[in-house]
Amino acid sequence: DEPTLSSEDLAAAQSRRLTGDDVRPSSSDVELEVEDLEVAYARLLKVKQSIENGENVPEPDQGEGPTDEDTQDLGRWMAAMLQRQGYIHWWQHKSAIRALALNAFPKIRDQPRIARLSDLLGMLGAHFELERTWAGHKLSHQEHFAEIGSIYK
């Protein structure tokens, strides 16, 4: 079973963008072209469905691999994003950041394209679920701290 994107997920993502709760990191030396999760998910799902329907969907051009500039740009973007997301002392916790990144980008199968697409779709679905869980976690903690604050008034 493939994960599906509910209309509630899409509405929540749209709401975050409109209210500014979905602030994107910025850096003067890094051009940011961030695709939203739901757009990436929809594109992958369309490609997977086309392949399953027997359509000839060519592999994207792989090029010769990332340049040093590509690698440096991603590193600068990552550092700016961590800073913007509140990880203000990230360089003091590199092993934790590496563990988070490894968890965020699990290994996908080195198999035919359909298997890789399935892995990516599953990963994006898991990221949606994590986002929903994290939003609930933050809300429950806010309520907990408000309750504690009322006790000490």
From TrEMBL:
Region (Disordered) location: 1-30, 50-73
Top-rank taxon: Eukaryota
Its recorded name reads Uncharacterized protein
